[in-house]
Amino acid sequence: MSQEPDTLGLMGLTRPSSLSPSSISTFTSCPLSFRFAYIDRLPQPPSPWTVKGTLVHRALELLHNRPPSDRDLGAALADLATAGAELAGEPEMALLGLSAEEEAAFSADAEALVRRYFELEDPSTVRAIGLELKLRARLHDEPGAPELRGVIDRLELDAAGELVITDYKTGSVPREHNEQSRLTGVRLYALLCERVFGRRPARVQLLYLSEPVAIIATPSEQSVRGSARKATALWSAVERACDRDDFRPHPSRLCDFCAFRAYCPAFGGDPAAAEELRRAVAPAGPAPGAEPRPYALPEPSGAARPALPVAGA
Ligand code: SF4
Asked: What pTM was estimated for this model as a whole?
């Protein structure tokens, strides 16, 4: 199912082979950041909030791998400890360089997020049929359609047997003007689910553990089709930007969290320095378009539409 990178003429850049809700959001907010992350594949140093997100996601994955009757707070905290032990051996944790005091605060924050999760739902009632589900599908059936891919934290069946997608969020709840972009991602997950399994989910829920707050969306035929059209238009914009090697910076509040400020002309940086770094990391790096996050997506299977996972996970 994968599309080979399309190397263009002398001036063009190698196009990414796929899009994801994250990469779409990145291109929409800053095309230059998209280029650095998804085309140049520049390494991004881990941050405490992204590593904490990885830790909490893993703990909740372990929790939902347990039999429903075992999923209580004590089990969740034990799973958090297991996830912490797994992460302790990973380079991303070492790269944070936390002091003992900072590490204690990091662990306390992660525990608070897990505790607040229990204020949002009773995990013993959840019928998960897929955890950390890596999905990929063509955006549409026309020739040249890019691949859309994403990782669904949890796919489940509700009491009526309808599909529900759950996405855990460890950051802050979006303000009203950012909520639309969150919902765009939600609809893309719904589209991905529909393309892969042939069924649109009845609900997509974003569980913000920091408050805690749940944002629940009901994807409609119209909203999902609209998102597919927008993603197709965005893909055309990515292709044009690659053809012209024209990815412009778009400064915003997100610059405070951007790993590429040193190379960004909006902050006096030189993109040519990024080019040197790209050449240094390119031989070992994944193909353009691959996600910069630490989840490894599987190689394309080329298989026909898979059956829904069997309930009972
Ligand atoms: S610093 Fe801001 S403008 Fe520059 S690449 Fe990053 S997000 Fe874009």
From this structure: 0.82
